[in-house]
């Protein structure tokens, strides 16, 4: 799931079949400016807006067409990184997994770690410009993997059958319903694991697997049960999903997330402070 910068460096030096993609927020001027100014050697930019629309994954054929335009083949090793948030790389990882790419990894530490290592070794090269030239269109074939995504009906059924543990990846204020602006709250029976509990932002590192397992266990998750994760957009869910996968949990993402549940679910399955219900 994760590869070290030294591992990626070896792949680049030995000219192995690798597609390095910088996961970015969206196709805007700042994203392009940052990428053109400097990026990891041979990288191409991957825009969030081409992976998801209105909090839902794009159609498999749309994704297939897009990543083929970036030169992605079915047998190349896709390595994803971002510029410090990790959230965009893990979301892209989930999308690649959803659409059936079997060899995809996230670069540990992302661009910041690559730059840190570059200070001690010129082998960790970066480039400027629009990205590596695509010599030919890729041949990746998208295939929908339903085991990593679930729907409103799946979650609704689970409120009765309790087949899955349910994790809310919103921050604590949103989960508790005291976040400002929108009507926040959570699905009945969901436990809260914010992304701050699994990722060290200062060091740009995941908790080690031992500490991760403790966080998940302390939240009440059972390793023998699969897990449904949701947030407000699916983006933060991808980080918790990634953490669960690192610890060998069987996890899936409810892509409709809290906004869909708020609209469609019966009131008794929504935990919202009474004063927020009329906003």
Automatic annotation (TrEMBL):
Rhodanese domain location: 29-123, 185-270
Cellular-component GO terms for this entry: mitochondrion
Gene Ontology terms for molecular function: thiosulfate-cyanide sulfurtransferase activity
Pfam families: Rhodanese (PF00581)
UniProt keywords, alphabetically: Repeat, Transferase
Record-annotated membrane-spanning stretches: none
Name of this protein: Thiosulfate sulfurtransferase
